[in-house]
Design a protein that fits this description.
With about 325 residues, the protein is of the alpha/beta class. The chain folds into two domains: about 10-180, Peroxisomal Thiolase, Chain A, domain 1 (3-Layer(aba) Sandwich), CATH 3.40.47.10; about 185-330, 3-Layer(aba) Sandwich (Peroxisomal Thiolase, Chain A, domain 1), CATH 3.40.47. The protein contains ten helices and 13 strands. A five-stranded mixed β-sheet has the order 1-7-6-4-5, sandwiched between helices. A four-stranded mixed β-sheet has the order 8-13-12-11, sandwiched between helices. Strands 2-3 form a two-stranded antiparallel sheet. β4 (about 85), α4 and β5 form a beta-alpha-beta unit. α3 packs across α4 and α7 (about 225-245) runs parallel beside α8. The chain binds coenzyme A. The site of coenzyme A has 20 residues, from α2, α7 and β12.
Length: about 325
């Protein structure tokens, strides 16, 4: 039985904003604090520098600036916002949600606001949640933020992580459209991957005052880089091909692939694996590194001039959990 889509309401992205901190952490800075080299980092990751948020600021501050950028570029009225979904693994504090803090800082009184923690897949998850809200017809203007102050959790002396991560925030505005918008999302998770990529301390398992364990050792982001790399390539490639297939599309229909920016070699391997044409994959990892939930909206934000109305955009991400997925939308701006 075919589905009648003539009355379908899509959730379309109608505005985008972004913020990256001023302070740069270059490969040469890292050479000063651990046994690494600019040459090695570029060859193995494609990264030259990352941005680091000032110590006295937090995730909400970057998100607020990203939203202010969206407002100034697209002339949106924040009093129209019905809901704010914030994808972050680095909330300002465990409670309340960073989304509440952002709403307060922006004087948004009309919206409900909550966080989604799905690590580097967070923006993908939040985008689909937000699109679902819009598709119900009950919510008309939904902000989807991806923001992380991950540098707080990176041990500056640990060369297995300090080379990869940086801070940033991106945001998109969703609203109903008859013409097009979010088409589909294939989202997955497998918690057995939790040992390979995590920050253990600060939750209920390892509270900061737990006396019987060395909390300092658990306060930083840890990963088994090789295992994560392998799963990331396989999972993102499979998700892309499967989401295309179930929508009767092929990779040639895709105008832009916006992958999570974890390592340029991962991005290239996914591109080869799904056989996407050269020049269709967006990347900004060289000068931002991995900004966790912010990579995808920041990449869209930086490429606004390239993406044309009606273009088919495919997003894909992989992160701690493990969590991963791919989604498709028509660009309606
Ligand atoms: N600088 C210089 N040398 C380094 C180094 C660094 N920062 N890190 C590792 N090395 C050395 C190792 O000691 C090893 O030396 P050896 O061959 O003499 O033993 C060699 O380089 C290769 O190390 P390896 O760990 O195999 O490197 P890699 O190619 O796997 O790259 C990562 C390491 C972390 C960059 C890579 O595994 C990665 O990006 N993984 C995915 C991580 C990720 O995306 N996490 C977030 C997911 S959202």
């Amino acid at each position: 039985m075919s589905v009648d889509l003539s009355n379908k309401v899509f959730a379309a992205i109608t505005a985008v904003g972004g913020y990256i901190p001023q302070n740069k952490r270059t490969n040469f800075d890292l050479e000063q604090v651990c046994d690494t080299s600019d040459e090695w980092i570029i060859k193995r990751t494609g990264i030259k520098e990352r941005r680091i948020l000032e110590e006295e600021l937090a995730t909400s501050d970057m998100a607020v600036r990203a939203i202010q950028d969206l407002v100034s570029q697209f002339g949106k009225n924040l009093q129209d916002v019905d809901a704010i979904l914030v994808a972050t693994s680095t909330p300002d504090m465990p409670m309340p949600a960073t989304a509440n803090i952002i709403a307060d800082k922006l004087n948004i009184k009309t919206a409900w606001a909550f966080d989604i923690n799905a690590a580097c897949s967070g923006f993908l998850y939040a985008l689909d949640m937000g699109a679902s809200l819009v598709e119900t017809g009950r919510y008309k203007n939904v902000l989807i933020v991806g923001a992380d102050n991950i540098s707080t959790y990176v041990d500056i002396h640990d060369r297995s992580t300090n080379i990869l991560f940086g801070d940033g925030a991106g945001v998109v505005w969703l609203e109903p459209s008859k013409e097009g918008g979010v088409i589909d999302a294939l989202l997955q998770s497998n918690g057995s991957g939790r040992d390979f990529l995590n920050i253990e301390a600060g939750g209920s398992l390892y509270p900061l005052d737990r006396p019987d364990v060395d909390i300092t050792d658990k306060m930083y982001l840890k990963q088994d880089g090789k295992t994560v790399f392998k799963h990331a390539v396989q999972s993102m490639s499979d998700a892309c091909l499967n989401v295309l297939k179930r929508n009767n599309l092929t990779v040639d229909d895709v105008n832009w692939l916006v992958p999570h920016q974890a390592n340029q070699r991962i991005i290239d391997a996914v591109g080869r694996s799904i056989n996407i044409a050269e020049g269709k994959t967006l990347s900004n990892i060289e000068y931002l590194g991995n900004t966790i939930a912010a990579t995808i909206p920041l990449c869209i934000w930086e490429n606004l001039k390239q993406i044309k109305t009606g273009d088919l955009v495919m997003l894909t991400a992989f992160g701690a959990g493990f969590s991963w997925g791919a989604s498709l939308f028509r660009w309606m701006i």
